[in-house]
Amino acid sequence: MIRDRKNLSPLFIFLTAFLFLLVSCSNLPLIGKKGEKDKIPAGKTVAVEGMEDYKGVNPTKTETPPAQKPSTPAPPPRKEPETRIASAPPKPFYGPSLPFFQMGFKRKVAILDFENNTTYKDEKIGESVAKKLSDKLETTQRVVTLDKIVVSEMLKREGFKFESFSDPSAMKRAHQSLGIQAFVLGTVADVSILSSKTSETSDEEAAFATAKIEIRLIDASTANLLKTFIGRSPIFGTKETGENSRGKAVLKAIEFGLDDILDGFLRQLDLLDWATTIAKVEGENIYLNAGKLSGIRIGDTLEVFEPGKEILHPTTNISLGWTTGKLKGIIKISELFGVDAAVGKVAQGTGFNTNDVVKSTVR
Predict the structure, then answer these.
(1) pLDDT value, residue 357
(2) CA–CA separation, 220 vs 217, rounded Å?
């Protein structure tokens, strides 16, 4: 009997433990497929004994997208064309290379003949170039141009005799007596003209032209060549039609050639110091070879120097330039008269004479 009880003890313990497990797990959800009511509501928090709290969210239903028909691939995005601005040929810049306060005094330039080295000998091409150049220099308001005939007449009135301005002494005399800073001469060459009918049914002619312009700038104080400038005109842009189209095309080609030169010409001219000379002395009145046209104004103060000395190279005998003479004093402009003359009053100094050199006080 006692042995039977001992055999039942393990069974009793096993049953007791099994019942305990059933009671403790009674709150767990059943294993298996859940009904719609057993789903965890979206956004609700469920507490599980012995575990952390979790927020239940039902996964969204995945829908299979309907089969799409193969479509033509979309064209690539259209690339906007780059905006381009057609630039016109740059115009020559005639701006000053000197400070603004030195802009008041203009250089005096005498324009001599331009030699016609073209096959069009009957045309006055050389005269046309000289006239065009004079007009362009005057337009800059930085240069006073003088015709060679005017300069010749002035020198002859002084009793100075010369054959032509190719004589260096003539240029130097013009500098001392008239205050001319530079002489200009040159040649015209390689003029070509192309012409054709504007259409098969018209008799109107269209002409194009090209030209080569050579300008030589000479320092009047030494008669030395400073620089040679060469300008060439493109054939494009010279088209002219109608009556005298050839002559008009040549003039336009000459103008383009001068425009190609002018900026460098002015910069080289600026390297020459501005100066003029005394024409006459009467007591305290000093009469100058420059006035309103040269940019002198009433109230300007100017320095007066002795003419200085010309230095010649011992071997080549070429003029190296003029030294600055002794400072004599200062004059103040009191009156402007004539086309280009002025009167100054002595402010300081004494002993002023004709042909003394007059310079700006601004350095």
Answers:
(1) 92
(2) 9
